TrEMBL record:
<dbReference type="InterPro" id="IPR000836">
    <property type="entry name" value="PRTase_dom"/>
</dbReference>
<dbReference type="GO" id="GO:0000166">
    <property type="term" value="F:nucleotide binding"/>
</dbReference>
<comment type="pathway">
    <text>Purine metabolism; GMP biosynthesis via salvage pathway; GMP from guanine: step 1/1.</text>
</comment>
<dbReference type="InterPro" id="IPR050408">
    <property type="entry name" value="HGPRT"/>
</dbReference>
<keyword id="KW-0328">Glycosyltransferase</keyword>
<dbReference type="GO" id="GO:0004422">
    <property type="term" value="F:hypoxanthine phosphoribosyltransferase activity"/>
</dbReference>
<keyword id="KW-0963">Cytoplasm</keyword>
<dbReference type="GO" id="GO:0006178">
    <property type="term" value="P:guanine salvage"/>
</dbReference>
<dbReference type="GO" id="GO:0000287">
    <property type="term" value="F:magnesium ion binding"/>
</dbReference>
<keyword id="KW-0660">Purine salvage</keyword>
<keyword id="KW-0479">Metal-binding</keyword>
<comment type="function">
    <text>Purine salvage pathway enzyme that catalyzes the transfer of the ribosyl-5-phosphate group from 5-phospho-alpha-D-ribose 1-diphosphate (PRPP) to the N9 position of the 6-oxopurines hypoxanthine and guanine to form the corresponding ribonucleotides IMP (inosine 5'-monophosphate) and GMP (guanosine 5'-monophosphate), with the release of PPi.</text>
</comment>
<dbReference type="GO" id="GO:0006166">
    <property type="term" value="P:purine ribonucleoside salvage"/>
</dbReference>
<comment type="pathway">
    <text>Purine metabolism; IMP biosynthesis via salvage pathway; IMP from hypoxanthine: step 1/1.</text>
</comment>
<keyword id="KW-0808">Transferase</keyword>
<dbReference type="GO" id="GO:0005829">
    <property type="term" value="C:cytosol"/>
</dbReference>
<feature type="domain" description="Phosphoribosyltransferase">
    <location>
        <begin position="6"/>
        <end position="156"/>
    </location>
</feature>
Length: 189
């Protein structure tokens, strides 16, 4: 059974998205922003974020996969779907769901930087700095969380739970899934 414990309720996430969008609107005022979402996990966060932006916005996506098991990054990153847009000379904001070891973003950052954008920044909803293996500090970060495996709001476990509006800590204990979920109150205040 998968047990889910609420970590961040929907309202708390939405308030944070508002706050991040406010900062981005200020920082990119008068500029056009190319927002690049990292599939698949960032799709929910990105959809909420861009609807709060009042600067000129273009959307693109990149899909990556890291070889290795489901819950740990191996550090070998493969681009499954590259950008459709050319980013040279443009202001690019990379949007990620969560930074864990930092290996995925480090690789992507270097790869995109080589295409000579006018600027390149990173926005993540969640950060697990305890697990970092490379030096990487996001320009915009929603929440710093402990080393939990989390699902919901775009994040998955075996491709499930991405549709949940809140973020939950998942106990991957004993294999089979459950229909219901156990909610035990917020762990982050
Ligand atoms: P790295 O280690 O390269 O990994 O920073 C980033 C990617 O790993 C996935 N990841 C998670 N996915 N719950 C998830 O659903 C988690 O707690 C988690 N931690 C890391 C995620 O795909 C992210 O893009
Ligand atoms: Mg992911």
């Amino acid at each position: 059974m998968h047990k889910l414990e609420i970590l961040l309720a929907e309202e708390k996430i939405q308030a944070k998205v508002d706050e991040l969008a406010g900062r981005i609107n200020q920082d990119y005022a008068e500029k056009e922003l190319l927002v690049v979402g990292i599939l698949r996990g960032a799709f929910v966060f990105m959809a909420d974020l861009v609807r709060k932006l009042d600067v000129s916005v273009i959307i693109d996506f990149v899909a990556v996969s890291s070889y290795g098991d489901e819950t740990a990054s191996s550090g070998v990153v493969r681009i499954l779907k590259d950008l459709d847009e050319t980013i040279t000379g443009r202001h690019v904001l990379l949007v990620e769901d969560i930074i864990d070891t930092g290996l995925t973003l480090k690789y992507l950052y270097k790869n995109l930087k080589a295409r000579r954008p006018a600027s390149l920044k990173v926005c993540t909803l969640l950060d697990k700095p305890d697990r970092r293996k490379v030096d990487l500090v996001p320009d915009y970060n929603g929440f710093i969380i402990p080393d939990y495996f989390v699902v919901g709001y775009g994040l998955d476990c075996g491709q499930r739970f991405r549709n949940l509006p809140g973020i939950y800590v998942i106990d991957q204990g004993s294999g089979k899934e459950t229909e219901g979920e156990e909610v035990k109150g917020e762990m982050i205040h």
